[in-house]
Amino acid sequence: MKQGKATAVASPNMALVKYWGKRNDKLILPYNSSLSMTLGGFATKTTVEFGDYNNDTIIINDEQLKKDEKDIVGHLERIRHMAGIKEKAKVVSESNFPISSGLASSASGLAALTLAATRAAGLTMNERELTILTRLGSGSACRSICEGFVIWHKGERNNGSDSYAETVAKKNHWKDFTMITAVISEAKKKIGSRAGMAQSVATCPFYKNWIKSSEEDLSIIKKGILEKNFTAVGSCAENNCLKMHSVMMTTKPPLIYWLPATLDIIRNVIIWRDEGLESYFTIDAGQHVNVICLDRDAKKMERSLQEISDVTKTTISKPGDGAKIVNDNLF
Ligand code: PMV
Fold first, then answer.
1. Burial of 247 (0-12, 13-18, 19+ CB in 10 A)
2. Cα 14 to ligand 1 centroid, rounded to whole Å
3. Which tens digits make up the pLDDT trace of 247-262?
4. H or E element: which one contains 159?
């Protein structure tokens, strides 16, 4: 094979309707469809080269990963198989946001890796095919392939060919829609989403209700985005997050991701809202809180969040671009 090299950038995403639980663990097929916003301003850039290397070498933010980096190597293996090539790869990846920023760097990382590696391997894939391939590497990362507001369709087929992501509204559709991530410092490591959601599917007595209710939330939020109805989108996203955390808390053993400061922000957001500063919160499988507000309130909201003790960092983001090929290689 002629040596192939390509570079891609992708952004993290934050779900407004969450994904929590798989109907197929191997193909990463979810029980419910989910909907997210791709976070503009934050990006992971990844260069992949297939060539005369003895092993796959992976360097993330200047640090070389150990050979047993199963997820990334497994994903490269999948792409080599599709392209019919055997060459090992060198992968160099850099994010413009720290891992401790409370944003899921794995989503932007997997999306950028998929786009760069398929291009470097000589594969030509459309956006839908790319989201399906990214999903096999890491579920929620498939939403980071697409721009703006994005649905990941759960699909019905057993082979996963209809479980893909697509844009419902482009980034410029709703420039006022703002998300502020408040990072809360933590001492202990949390249980990862992969293991956590499998426990919820197996043991939470409310799991079926969560699925039914999330499908209803998806229609409300999709309609709200198209109509730019902030109250409808914000209140439903907040409620969806609380339902996911109720499922987590009633899993056996319980999954409690919140810290005292998480609850502090939740209570404050409700107070600020009652006082007229319209805002809502959403939280993934961790302690950090994402506050949703309109652009005109973002700076005030950010200052208020910074005053809460244990909030170590805040970042403001807007709807952003999907994954893209760029020309400036990292090596
Ligand atoms: O794709 P994973 O395994 O990182 O799971 C993501 C789960 C949540 O972040 C909690 C929800 C979501 O839809 O992003």
1. buried
2. 9
3. 999 999 999 999 999 9
4. none
Phi, psi of 226 (to 5 degrees): -60, -35
Beta carbon of 251 within 6 Å of any ligand 1 atom: no
Residue located via tokens 């209700």 = 209
* Pocket mutation for ligand 1, best pick of 108, 140, 143, 151 (most atoms within 8 Å of C-beta): 140
**Do residues 107 and 313 lie in contact, with contact meaning Cβ atoms separated by under 8 Å?**
no
At 91-100, the pLDDT tens digits run: 999 999 877 6
**Alpha helix positions (H), 63-192:** 70-83, 105-120, 127-137
Residues in the chain: 331
Longest dimension (CA), the chain: 64
What's 253's DSSP letter? S
For the entire predicted model, the pTM comes to 0.96
